[in-house]
Amino acid sequence: MSAHKLLDDGTLPLDFNERVKNLCSCAPNPPPAPDYQAAAEEKGAANIAAAKVQGKINNPNVISPYGTQKVTYGEGFDDPAYQQAVQQWNAGNAQHMARYGVPLDDPSAGPTAPPRPTREMFTAGDPDQATITQQFSPEQQRIFDLSNQAKIGLGEVAGQGTEALKGVVGRPIDFSGAPPQAGQSEDVRKRVLEAMMSRVNEDYGRKSDDMNSNLIAAGLRPGSKAYDDQMALLARTRTDANTQAELAAQQAMSSQFGLDTQARKDAIAETLMQRQVPLNEITALMSGSQVNNPFAMPTYAQNAQVGAAPVYEATVDAANYASDLYNVKAQQAGNLQSGLFGLGGAALMGGGMAYSDRRLKTNIQRVGNHYLGIGIYEYDIAGRHERGVMADELLTVKPNAVLMHPDGYYRVDYAQIGGRP
Predict the structure, then answer these.
(1) If I label 253, which of 108, 115, 158, 177 is the partner at 20 to 30 A Cα–Cα?
(2) 290, 147 Cβ separation under 8 angstroms
(3) What integer pLDDT is reported at residue 27 of this predicted model?
(4) pTM of the predicted model as reported, rounded to 2 decimal places
């Protein structure tokens, strides 16, 4: 057995180059590109299916003491025809099972086997269009009918009141008949003042004449200081009385002003009442009680959310995982080929074979698989850290690539395991 040597032009023999090419063919193939359009279309279909499921979950049939609520899909469902079709199919399926041992909906039954009946087959119109039918219980229906009758009667009475109200609402409000806000307050002030000052003025005139006579008789003439002082004292009493009369007159005027204001307010309120009473009567007639709708707020929580399967995202993640896995395997294959080529090449360049006896190796660690089905290892040998195969394993699959050296240890011809023979 001879090792390959370099040719005169510095290249390896052709058979070795072919082996190296075969070794490179052990690298993994790149993953195929995902069909992103198909994944997107599949996700769109999943969204539609999820929306249908969500719609059905959020529209339950309701049976309560107040009545029932039934949800149907499409324009109508032919239940008798559906039940008849189900019975016929079950009978045919039983016969098919007894004769062939498989049901009619089994793929082995063939394309001519009748399909299992579905509700969609007997639904007219769009099977995805929901129709909700609500029906009162007999008691609730009677209450509802009586309530409607009462509202109709009240509405008729309100119509009569509306006709009578036309002459009221269409006419502007006239407050001219209400008492004026000032009213008689000024007249009251004048009367009080005159009443209180009439006697004072009368007494003052008489006392003034008497004092004038007495002062002249006493020798005090008009224009003298003594005469003027005495007359001033008499005039002061009249001024004080006039002040008291003015205060009393003002109080009487304020009291009368309040009475006049209240009278005006009462008159205006009465006018507004006459206008508002017909409106209030019509409003009361039109706001009659009505029966509650038990389906307006069902106790079932209509908030279920159904998300579509993330088909597109899963496709992208799978593609990224395949690419990452391919890169890892390609790198491992490249490292493995580089190590094998280096070991085998070194042995060939040296004109001999490489020691590969397990007894000469330490720190052995398996790092990969050779295409011959044996392991690839990293180990320490002769003070070096190398990568290669084990001679005892190679003996079991390719014994002609292993040679027992006279020193009693195995050597491996790596040129022979660089590619398939």
Answers:
(1) 177
(2) yes
(3) 54
(4) 0.34
